[in-house]
Design goal:
The complex is a heterodimer of chains A (about 325) and B (about 450). Chain A is an alpha+beta fold. Chain A is about 40% helix and about 10% strand. Chain A has two domains: about 60 residues, Electron transport complex subunit B, putative Fe-S cluster (3-methyladenine DNA Glycosylase II, Chain A, domain 3); about 220 residues, no CATH class. In chain A, helix 2 packs antiparallel against helix 4. Chain B has about 450 residues and is of the alpha/beta class. Chain B folds into three domains: about 160 residues, Ubiquitin-like (UB roll), CATH 3.10.20; about 160 residues, 3-Layer(aba) Sandwich (Rossmann fold), CATH 3.40.50; about 70 residues, no CATH class. Chain B contains 14 helices and 17 strands. A six-stranded mixed beta sheet of chain B has the order 1-14-13-17-15-16. In chain B, strands 2-8-7-4 form a four-stranded antiparallel beta sheet, with no helix packed on it. In chain B, helix 1 crosses helix 4 and helix 4 packs across helix 7. Chain B is globular and about 65 Å long. Classes of the chains: A alpha+beta (about 325), B alpha/beta (about 450). Chains A and B meet through helix 5 of A and helix 14 of B.
Chain lengths: ~325, ~450
């Protein structure tokens, strides 16, 4: 009897031992080393998996940061646009590196060719897709650079940060924007650009991408940039460049002085989240002006006051929402 | 199937509406100004060689080919170059165009303007190809692929058959039909020239049997040359597609993503054959073509011989004006043509017709959900599954779309025509093709 029990125990025990040895050998032979920091970094990331960083998901980004920290001892060029500076600071702390604070960015729609400013001349009936319509024709309003209003950017946005305004037929970006770049890639016409959010969300940009000469551009759209270069002359900081009849404001050089906004004859340059100017009627008459500004400035203000009523308000609403 | 040949898979038979079939070709007076787009052919746009203020003669070279797949453009009129500026063309975009103010109609001296038939082919094979290239001949069926490229088969490939496309399967259009009736003898010589250039001994002219007069006429003329055979084909859209025509005529199938030369065939349109005849025998560049102007409400559906660069408006005026009930103006046929956004759009080498569609027939159907009837699958001449590809394209599942061979789609629109739910299948197929094409290109670049 004892014998049988002994045999059973030793046989099973022996088998277990052999199996344990084999498993131990295999486990040590095929061990995959994974830096525990990857998990740590991943848990610090927002898990949006949006691809805004340029990597396929948060895990891949976490791996990239750990590899970069190990090999380059820096996190330059790696940024989680969704998490922003806070998350990058945490990631830096985990990896023991200093992370430079990045300027927060936001997507900006560089077209103001709404149904009011660029009325439809033809009617589009095809599939609801900007990419498709772009391959077919110029656009309902006749501007072949402007927004097609078919909402590819809205579909691309993972954060519900872009909506179409049914009245203007243009997309509008709200504060949820994380500057993940998805809409920029989705837009077949390259209208959307990532720009600095700016101090207190104040920013100035040219809301047009039309590269035609002045006359044909203006024919299709009242608020097109006509490349008149008045803004370039007004800018004291060399922030404005004009290429093929289109002004572009470099947001790194712009000091938000608003001089260009004032001189633009077509209101193509937009200011966002600035305080409304003082009532212009007062500045027109010299004796009533008590603001103490030099006269030339006032003149400019009064000039632009004639033509800039609604669209700026619209912009204000757009981004404050 | 009956006694007439046709392709096997799919196809539809839309109402033919060949309203202008009995209207003889009529020359439209030379307009006061022509606008010649520089990107008229498939491939790279041409480079202008004239500048503002230059005097040009009819038939003078004004823009030269800028690559292998590109074509020369010749002035269709005589006069002064006004400017080279952006103007809207049939793509719906503003593209560089040459504006010429017409003064008189003085032709280049080298062009033989007589009507006599020159049936003796004196040029050698290489000389023919060089002449076709120099005189800017492109495929006039609509795709505007430079003919000289088609006449130079790639290394190691040899053509066995020349197939002449006289199918004209698009409803409404009759320009090729009229060409065959009125210029039959020239077309036969053109075919002989093409055969000499390609060094082939067999040519087949495929014509759908709704054009019996053209079939009889060409059969009669082809009797003089036993190498040329005319075959009547069953009326079915899209038989004018290269791959479908080869299948119908020779029962050969062009492999996916390959050209007809793979199965020993070169396909040319009848109008191209005529243009080749004029180029080789008369030294006349391609600067005019026959355009059908038609539509149910058009008072005078016609076939016009038009100089390239004439505005669409002029042609519509020549056909007794635009009817009140017009909903869309389409450049090309109703199935594959494209609605134009401006009536000033100039006629280009690829414009086979101007169709003024009624409001009632040009409206889109209301889109309803797919009822899984699989009519689109039965209608697809390429054996694809349009409902599936459409879904994949809509959802951005590009790998699925690519695996299901979306790039084989010839954009004939049979699926959309047959869909009882009014789903814009072709739109989404095109969208899918754009996206998949882009993905493939980026992959190749990497």
């Amino acid at each position: 009897m004892d014998n049988i029990i002994l045999i059973a125990v030793s046989a099973l025990g022996g088998l277990g031992l052999i199996a344990a040895v084999i498993l131990y050998y295999i486990a040590s032979k095929f061990k995959v080393f994974e830096d525990p920091k990857i998990d740590e970094v991943e848990s610090a990331l927002p898990s949006a998996n949006c691809g805004g960083c340029g990597f396929p998901g948060c895990r891949a980004f976490a791996e990239a940061t750990v590899v970069s920290a190990r090999e380059r001892k820096s996190l330059d060029g790696l940024n989680c646009p969704v998490g922003g500076n806070e998350v990058m600071q945490v990631v830096g702390k985990i990896l023991g590196l200093e992370v430079e604070a990045k300027e927060p960015m936001i997507a900006v729609i560089r077209c103001n060719g709404s149904t009011i400013h660029s009325p439809a001349k033809v009617k589009y009936e095809g599939a609801i897709s900007c990419t498709f319509a772009h391959a077919l024709y110029g656009g309902e309003g006749g501007c072949q650079f402007g927004c097609l209003s078919l909402a590819d950017c809205v579909d691309a946005c993972e954060f519900e940060a872009i909506h179409m305004n049914p009245e203007t037929g243009l997309p509008e970006v709200n504060d949820r924007c994380t500057a993940c770049n998805a809409c920029v890639l989705a837009c077949p016409r390259g209208i959307i650009e990532l720009r600095k959010r700016g101090p207190k969300d104040k920013r100035i940009f040219v809301s047009c991408v039309n590269m035609e000469k002045g006359a044909p551009a203006k024919k299709n759209c009242e608020v097109a940039c006509i490349g008149c270069s008045l803004c370039q002359k007004a800018c004291a900081f060399d922030a404005i460049t004009i290429t093929s009849f289109l002004a572009y404001i470099d947001f790194n050089k712009c000091t938000l002085c608003r001089k260009c906004v004032e001189v633009c004859p077509t209101n193509a340059i937009h200011e966002v989240n600035f305080k409304p100017r003082k009532p212009k009627a007062e500045t027109l008459t010299p004796e009533k002006s008590v603001s103490g500004k030099p006269l030339a400035d006032k003149q400019l203000v009064s000039d632009s006051s004639k033509t800039e009523p609604e669209n700026k308000k619209e912009e204000m609403i757009e981004t404050k929402e | 199937m009956g006694i007439f040949k046709s392709f096997v898979l799919g196809g539809v038979h839309p109402a033919e509406n060949k309203l202008s079939a009995n209207a003889a070709i009529e020359a439209v007076p030379v307009p006061k100004q022509v606008i010649i787009p520089l990107g008229q052919n498939l491939g790279a746009p041409s480079k202008p060689i004239v500048k503002k203020g230059d005097q040009v003669k009819t038939g003078q070279l004004i823009a030269e080919a800028s690559g292998f797949i590109s074509a020369n453009i010749h002035s269709p009129v005589s006069g002064t170059v006004l400017k080279i500026d952006q103007f809207i063309d049939v793509t719906g975009y503003k593209r560089p165009c040459v504006f010429i103010h017409v003064e008189g109609d003085e032709w280049d001296e080298s062009i033989d303007r007589t009507d006599t038939l020159e049936s003796h082919i004196s040029l050698s094979s290489e000389e023919i190809v060089a002449r076709v290239k120099a005189l800017g001949i492109v495929g006039l069926g609509g795709a505007t692929f430079p003919t000289s490229v088609k006449l130079t088969p790639p290394q190691g490939k040899k053509a066995e058959y020349l197939i002449i496309n006289g199918v004209e399967c698009e409803p409404y259009l009759t320009s090729d039909h009229r060409m065959m009736l009125e210029k039959g003898r020239e077309i036969i010589v053109g075919i002989q020239i093409l055969m000499k250039a390609l060094l082939v001994e067999k040519a087949i002219i495929g014509i759908e049997n709704n054009k019996t007069d053209a079939i009889n006429h060409l059969t009669e003329l082809a009797k003089t040359d036993e190498r040329i055979r005319v075959i009547a084909l069953k009326v079915r859209y899209p038989q004018g597609g290269e791959k479908q025509l080869i299948k119908a005529a020779l029962n050969r199938e062009v492999p996916s993503g390959k050209l007809p030369i793979e199965v020993g065939c070169v396909v040319q349109n009848v109008s191209t054959a005529f243009a080749v005849y004029e180029a080789v025998q008369k030294n006349k560049p391609l600067f005019e073509r026959v355009v059908t102007v038609t539509g149910k409400a058009v008072k005078k559906p016609s076939n016009f011989l038009v100089r390239i660069g004439t505005s669409t408006q002029d042609l519509i005026d020549a056909a007794a004006g635009i009817p009140e009930s017009t909903g869309k103006v389409i450049s090309g046929g109703p199935m594959m043509g494209k609605a134009i956004t401006e009536l000033d759009t100039p006629i280009v080498k690829g414009t086979s017709g101007i169709l003024l569609m009624e409001k009632t027939e040009s409206q889109r159907l209301v889109e309803n959900p797919c009822i899984r009837c699989s009519r689109c699958t039965y209608a697809c001449p390429m054996g694809l599954e349009p409902y599936l590809l459409t879904k994949a394209a809509k959802l951005g599942k590009l790998q699925v779309a690519e695996k299901e061979m979306i790039m084989d789609c010839i954009e004939c629109g049979s699926c959309q025509y047959t869909c009882p739910s009014g789903i814009p299948l072709l739109d989404y197929l095109r969208l899918g093709k754009i996206k998949v094409g882009r993905a493939i290109r980026t992959r190749i670049k990497k």
